[in-house]
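Field guide to reading this record: the first block holds the primary sequence, the second block holds the structure written as discrete tokens, and the final block holds curator observations. Each block starts with its own label. This record concerns Histidine kinase, catalogued under organism Chryseolinea lacunae.

BLOCK 1 — SEQUENCE
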Amino acid sequence: MTYLECTTCHTVLHVFLKVATFMVTSWMFMWFGNEYLADYLDHKIEWTKKPLQRFAVGILVMVVYTLIAIVLLTKFFELVFSMRFSSLEQTGYTTIAITFVITLFMTSRSFLFNWRDMAIESEKFKKESSIAKYESLKNQVNPHFLFNSFNALTNLVYDDQDKAVKFIKQLSEVYRYVLDTRDKEVVNLADERKFLDAYLFLQQIRFGEKLKMDVRLADVESMVAPLVLQMLVENAIKHNVISEDNPLTIRLFAEGGFIVVENNLQKKSVTLEESSGLGLENIVKRYEFLSDKAVEVVQNEKFTVKLPILPA
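BLOCK 2 — STRUCTURE
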């Protein structure tokens, strides 16, 4: 091999290495850069809530990033490796074409992953919702609830027949609502309040002045997970002492974007009615699916649960 041939081979090899380095560097910037942008956009714009906006913004951001990255990398290689743009032009076009394919792949992958996660979350929510409704229905037909309701009804039949008729009607409303909402993810707060009023009527016939209710939700427009307010009130009644000397006060009101259920804390030393422990945990998990805000639970001298207000 002549000296000229060796020089030519060395030059070709040198140019090839430069071009290969440029292409590998470009692809790495495109791949990891677009992957980071896809993850960032997933947190800012959720596929499940704004799919068209997420798709359009994703394509636009990745295309702009790709063009800027190619221009900057080209300038960098021109300065550092003394490569003229003309020698990189064809390579740059190839890299851009490949990068567009990567962009579409990243966007499609992001959509599919989010769709899969949404499907999993949807199944989890259905399971949690079913458990909650089963727990509520079970609590309404357990021997303690029925015994207490029928015992109160027996006394009413002798003392106040009109109130006894209303008691039976409200008891039927409680069961009807539980059955009517068994397939619903959310219900209007106004409907939930009617159900809660029926339930509270039954409980206040039983406890009288020993149970004090302060409900201030008349002007609040919101959706709620079915049976949640009743479950929280029921837990307060179940786990706290209720007597003439120690009346239980339960307050329901709206504050700072939350529906607040609050009661004074006077725990029973022994709870006759068994608790599955799923009630509050289930409510927290259901609202993880329904709202970006988390359910807040605070326990000090009072027990407070804050449910995020859901747009009506």
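BLOCK 3 — OBSERVATIONS
Confidence is low (pLDDT under 50) at residues 272-277.
Residues 206 and 254 are 27 Å apart (CA to CA).
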